[in-house]
Design brief:
Shape: elongated
Number of helices: 4
Order of helices and strands: EEHHEHH
Strand content: 5-15%
Oligomer: single chain
Helix content: 25-40%
Strand order of the largest sheet: 1-2-3
Length: about 120
C-alpha cells in the first residue's frame, strides 16, 4: 500500500509504503504491483535488511530506507493487475492474456465453455 503525495499528471510522489497492511491501517487505496525502477543502492540496503512482514526480507522496507535519501515516484496505472503470487491470480493472468489474443482467444473461450458445461450437474461428461 502506498501513501500519495505531490503529483504531476499520472505520476505521484510516494510518501509511505506498508507491506501487506490491514485494510484499516493502509495509508491509501493504492497498491504497488511489483514493477520498479530503483537505483543500485537498494542492493546495499537489502544486504543488511532485517526481516519484516511474514518474517521475510521485504523490498518495501529497503525502499523506505532508500526513500530517506531519494524520491520515489508512482505511476497511476489504469489497466488491470493480477496477483501472480497466488495460484488463482497466476491462472487469471494467463487466461486474461490468452482471451485477449486474437489467435488464442476463440479456442481458449471454447475450452472454458466446455469445462464449465462439464462441471455443471447434468452437463455433458
Amino acid at each position: 500500500m502506498v501513501g500519495r503525495g505531490e503529483s504531476q499528471g499520472d505520476l505521484f510522489a510516494i510518501t509511505e509504503m506498508v507491506e501487506k497492511p490491514a485494510p484499516e491501517k493502509a495509508p491509501s487505496n493504492l497498491i504497488i504491483t511489483g514493477r520498479y525502477v530503483i537505483q543500485p543502492e537498494i542492493f546495499d540496503l537489502l544486504s543488511t535488511q532485517k526481516r519484516g512482514a511474514g518474517e521475510e526480507i521485504q523490498l518495501t522496507d529497503a525502499m523506505l530506507e532508500l526513500a530517506k535519501t531519494q524520491r520515489f515516484w508512482g505511476y497511476k496505472f489504469l489497466g488491470k493487475s493480477f496477483d501472480c503470487g497466488s495460484k488463482i491470480g497466476f491462472l487469471a493472468a494467463n487466461l486474461s492474456y490468452a482471451l485477449a489474443r486474437p489467435e488464442l482467444g476463440p479456442a481458449v473461450r471454447s475450452l472454458l465453455e466446455a469445462a464449465v458445461a462439464e462441471s455443471v450437474p447434468g452437463g455433458s461428461r
